[in-house]
């Protein structure tokens, strides 16, 4: 692989992700945001299953859920997002929170400089809500990868302050 070919592939992925969100959320299903979310998440699920298959092909099987989650935080995240997850928390009862303080796909969301503190709060909230639609696909990626690795779960995401976000994984028992 040539040195510049990786950068082109990454910029293409960024463009495809942005266009997929725009197509489903703003054009096809603008009046049905839940349908757009389900469709984008389903695409992510499929991709996540395939990536998990590829990234674990030469590894021994995982023995427990925690080992799988650690793989997602370190190896899977590094392959997909070019860095490890910044923080992992658990309640030891099947809920894991993966925190990324600079989530790559949220770094391009910008907010105009507000004039007042109340405008700042409203702008930040609006940006977080707008950024939420860019988390449907990675939620699907995570759920697809975990399902492929034998961990049935539900995945949701929250944005505290752009570009930071948290992915909440609830393992189904």
Automatic annotation (TrEMBL):
GO terms for biological process: endoplasmic reticulum to Golgi vesicle-mediated transport. Gene3D superfamilies: Trafficking protein particle complex subunit 3. It holds the Pfam family TRAPP. One of its GO terms (cellular component) is trans-Golgi network. InterPro entries: NO_sig/Golgi_transp_ligand-bd, TRAPP_component, TRAPPC6/Trs33. Belongs to the TRAPP small subunits family. BET3 subfamily. This is Trafficking protein particle complex subunit 6B. The lineage of its organism: Eukaryota, Viridiplantae, Streptophyta, Embryophyta, Tracheophyta.
């Amino acid at each position: 692989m040539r040195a510049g070919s990786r950068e082109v592939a990454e910029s293409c992925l960024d463009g495809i992700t942005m266009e997929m969100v725009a197509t489903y959320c703003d054009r096809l299903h603008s009046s049905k945001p839940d349908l757009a979310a389900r469709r984008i998440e389903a695409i992510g699920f499929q991709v996540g299953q395939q990536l998990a298959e590829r990234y674990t092909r030469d590894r021994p099987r995982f023995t427990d859920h925690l080992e799988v989650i650690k793989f997602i935080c370190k190896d899977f995240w590094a392959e997909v997002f070019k860095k490890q997850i910044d923080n992992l928390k658990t309640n030891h009862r099947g809920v894991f929170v993966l925190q990324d303080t600079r989530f790559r796909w949220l770094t391009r969301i910008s907010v105009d400089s507000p004039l007042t503190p109340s405008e700042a709060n409203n702008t930040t909230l609006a940006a977080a809500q707008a950024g939420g639609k860019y988390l449907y696909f990675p939620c699907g990626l995570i759920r697809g990868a975990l399902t492929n690795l034998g961990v049935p779960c539900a995945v949701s995401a929250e944005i505290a302050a752009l570009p930071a976000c948290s992915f909440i994984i609830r393992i189904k028992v």
